[in-house]
# Entry
Amino acid sequence: MSLVHGTELFAAARKGHYAIGAFNTNNLEWTRAILGAAQELNVPVLIQTSMGAAKYMGGYELCQQLVEATIKSMNITVPVVMHLDHGNYEAAKAAIAAGYNSVMFDGHDLPFAENLEKTKEIVALAHAKGISVEAEVGSIGGEEDGIVGEGELADVEEAKQLAATGIDFLAAGIGNIHGQYPANWKGLHFDRLQELADVIEQPLVLHGGSGIPQEQVEKAISMGIAKLNINTECQLAFAKATREYIEAGKDQEGKGFDPRKLLAPGTKAIEDTVKEIIGWMGTKPVKLVPEEI
Ligand SMILES: [Zn+2]
# Structure
């Protein structure tokens, strides 16, 4: 088992009150660290690229092929879902064409009627190929790839309408934000999460998972969050370990400047971070998830 579609994995997670981690990749080191952590813990994982990361890496086809080839070269046997994070309409179509297993169409900045219409179109295109679709209602605050969201609570009626388009999972704003959380952050809005969980059958997605206290993450998962997005936490871990390596002067000792040495501590730090967060999510080992789709 290697690359799989997301639908059944995440439905099982919501039913079983656990979550599956969705980690953003930026390059080969990130990809290896995420896959290595999931394999070591024997859990399914979702590896995703934002539009910006895909552009940086050389396009959706390259990203898909990098992940697929890395799975093969590392003998990864746990289920892996290759996903587009926060795609616009064109990006979702491009990722579907490139062979991603799952796409997020993020139309939260469109008028709601247009978000609904375009989500329907992406669902039709994706489901024809067995690809799962995530949609977003209520903007998630913070900044991602230059897009700054104010953050708002998802409207329950709009969430119901988006869910009725046949999407496979729904990202909903519940006070979560991308990037680092400010000191005066008020925490997740569990009352709104409960209202959403009461009427939405699909697995719910918590974006901006980096920096939410562990007990709030665990509570959200117990209430219906089945996919937890983590990005900033890995970036901070990578930067910190790389900074320590350089500040200790290790790049100036022997061949410490060799990128295979220079990038190693940061890569290890990503792997450790991924393992720690998967531990919070209670992700069930692979023997409990469906067979390959
Ligand atoms: Zn997000």
About this structure: The radius of gyration is 18 Å.
